[in-house]
Amino acid sequence: MARSKTSKKWLDEHVNDPYVKKAQIDGYRSRASYKLLEINEKDKLFRPGSIVMDLGAAPGGWSQIVAPIVGDSVEVIASDILPMDSIIGVNFIQGDFREESVYNEILQALGDNKADVVVSDMAPNLSGVNTTDQYASMYLVELALDMARNVLKPDGSFCAKVFQGVGYDEYVKDVRTSFNKLIVRKPDASRPRSREVYLVAKGFKG
């Protein structure tokens, strides 16, 4: 079946992407690993001993970064609708956390603890219709924020991928109500033409 011009352009861009090539060399599952590496270098989100929840974790590029940093004493709790190959130090829960059973499984993995950090690189399956895709992406980051508000310990941190567009400004204002500090990051590994940015919120008010 012939590829559309758009998908061919994406494939060419992907194959020639320096971060895709670098990820293959470095053994990372995703070019997105470099986004979190840069963010954590600048914002010191997690450190040895931090309890971290990774939402939208598959294929595991972010969990790969987090697990070695937080160390053996804690488990990264990762979740996604899609399957993910296992990573040492990561407790992966497959399923849709909007479902009560999956949500409860995530809470059980936390036990009596609260999370130091919630990270989310979630994105919807894109339809190609900008308005539809924007609403779908905003819905996901709202879910991620709800999760963060429920599981973070006071002074905890939240980092989420957000697409600029309809609903973005309102979402930023909403995040500010729960955190003392908010920074917008556009990592080098984020494609320049992409509308994605990463909100880094610190100092959860609890």
Automatic annotation (TrEMBL):
The terms under GO molecular function for this entry are: rRNA (uridine-2'-O-)-methyltransferase activity
**EC nos:** 2.1.1.166
> For the Ribosomal RNA methyltransferase FtsJ domain, which residue ranges apply?
28-204
Q: Which residues form the active site?
A: K161
Which residue windows are transmembrane per the record?
Answer: none
Q: Where in the cell is it found?
A: Cytoplasm
Q: Where is the signal peptide?
A: none
Which InterPro entries does the entry link to?
RNA_methyltr_RlmE, RNA_MeTrfase_FtsJ_dom, rRNA-MeTfrase_E, SAM-dependent_MTases_sf
Identify the Pfam families for this entry. FtsJ
What residues does S-adenosyl-L-methionine bind to?
A: G60, W62, D80, D96, D121
Q: Which domain of life is it from?
A: Bacteria
Keywords carried by this UniProt record: Cytoplasm, Methyltransferase, rRNA processing, S-adenosyl-L-methionine, Transferase
Coiled coil (residue ranges)? none
A single cellular component GO annotation: cytoplasm
Keyword Cytoplasm attached: yes
> Which HAMAP family does the record associate with it?
RNA_methyltr_E
Family label: Belongs to the class I-like SAM-binding methyltransferase superfamily. RNA methyltransferase RlmE family.
Q: What is this protein called?
A: Ribosomal RNA large subunit methyltransferase E
Can you name the source organism? Agaribacter marinus
